[in-house]
Each structure stands twice: as structure tokens, then as C-alpha cells.
Amino acid sequence: MYKLYVYDHCPFCIKARMIFGLHTLPFDMVMLQNDDEATPKAMIGRKMLPILEENGQYMGESMDIVAHIEKRSAALLTGSTNPQITDWIQRSSSVLYRQFLPRAACAPFPEFSTTAGRAYFVRNKERATGPFSEILSENATALAPLNAFLQELAPLIQSKEAVNGTLSTDDIHLFAHLHSLSIIKGLVYPSAVEDYRKTLSARVDIPLLDSIAV
């Protein structure tokens, strides 16, 4: 049995969880508290998730985990990648995570089930963004750049089953990005993006965050 240590909010953890969903491989998912530094450091020498445990051995880095599971099964991520998808993710990331982090801090994620776990996250992430309260108090115009990015993404999606027509690592990166976006209330998803994110969500058995969006 594989054991995967994750946070529910973490896009890198989403990537690792996706490959198990795509291959319909059973695994034991363990949610750590966000302020638990000792457990991951004992496994891989630093506080970083996801971590895969297999036969007493530990592996970090989400895409290393993806590649490892791909090698153990009939490969599914066989399609070509598109540099335009990589570029879109890179250009939209800073805008996304400025809006994502304050909302994640408010959400009922298991890793924030203790006051200490939530405070640890807020304290560390606000160093980069500034006070979360100020970001959450912004009006709807603050989401305009993200809505523009979603409009830009729509014509790049070739199929609701796979962004480039055949599953590839682009789908791992893109769905994780869209999963983070789903916690932001007020975004408008073009039909191609909406169909894609919902199809991938069902395929990998990872719910979107629409129901707890802020």
C-alpha cells in the first residue's frame, strides 16, 4: 500500500494525488497539520509535502512521485506538452496565489484543524502577500486579471479529457492550478475551461473547491 502525506490546499499535493486517481491506484492519504515540521523533516530532511512512503522508503517532489507511479503502471501521460500552457500557468501564478492564500487560510482544510496549524500558515504566507484581511477586502475588480486569464486559456483546451488532446504532464500542472482557482468566488469560467476542470476532477476523484469558495 502506498502512503501519501499531503495538505488538502497544496497544489503540489494535488499533482501527486492526481496520478493515483488517473491510475485508479489505492493509497492511504495522510493529512498533516500545517505546523508539523518534525514529521516531514524526519522523512526527507525538510518541511515539504507531498511525501510518498513505499516499503519504508520516502520520496518528495510531486513530479518525481508522478513519474514514479507512471513507471510502475502502464503510462497514461503519453501526450505532447504545449509551451503555451506552461507560459499561461507561469504568467497567472502570482495573481492566483495572492488571491488563493488568504482564502485557503479561511477554509476548513484538515491541515488547519488546530489554531496553531492555521496560525503557522498565516504567519508564514503573509510575509509574501501582506495582510490577508486587506486582500479579502478588495472589491471584484481585483479578480479581473484572473478572469482575463481564464478567457485566454479557453482556446488552448483541445478536449475536456486532456488539454492537448492526449493526457500529458500539462494536465497535471493545469488541473492543480485550476483546483486552486476554484476557491476564489466570482471567477467566470468559459465553457471549455468549465468542462475541462469538472471532467478532470471526476477522473482523478479530487473535488473542486467551489463549495467553499470565498
Description:
The protein has 214 residues and is of the alpha+beta class. The chain has helices at residues 11-23, 38-44, 62-72, 83-106, 115-129, 132-136, 144-153, 169-181, 191-204, and strands spanning 2-6, 27-31, 51-54, 57-59. It has nine helices and four strands. It has a four-stranded mixed sheet, with helices on both faces. β3 (51-54) and β4 form a beta hairpin. α1 runs parallel beside α3, α1 packs across α8 (169-181) and α4 runs antiparallel to α7 (144-153).
Taking the alpha carbons of the first and last residues, their distance comes to: 36 Å
Give me the side-by-side strand order of the main sheet. 2-1-3-4
Radius of gyration from CA coordinates: 17 Å
Oligomer: single chain
Query: Helix fraction?
Result: 40-55%
Largest sheet: 4 strands, mixed
Globally, the shape reads: globular
Q: By helix and strand content, what is the structural category?
A: alpha+beta
What is the number of beta strands? 4
* Count of helical stretches: 9
Topology:
Layout: E1 2-6, H1 11-23, E2 27-31, H2 38-44, E3 51-54, E4 57-59, H3 62-72, H4 83-106, H5 115-129, H6 132-136, H7 144-153, H8 169-181, H9 191-204
Parallel strand pairs: 1-2
Antiparallel strand pairs: 1-3, 3-4
Which terms would index this structure?
214 residues; alpha+beta; 4-stranded mixed β-sheet; 9 helices; 4 strands
Summarize the structure.
The protein is of the alpha+beta class and about 210 residues long. The protein has helices at about 10-25, 40-45, 60-70, 85-105, 115-130, 130-135, 145-155, 170-180, 190-205; strands at about 1-5, 25-30, 50-55, 55-60. The chain has nine helices and four strands, in the order βαβαββααααααα.
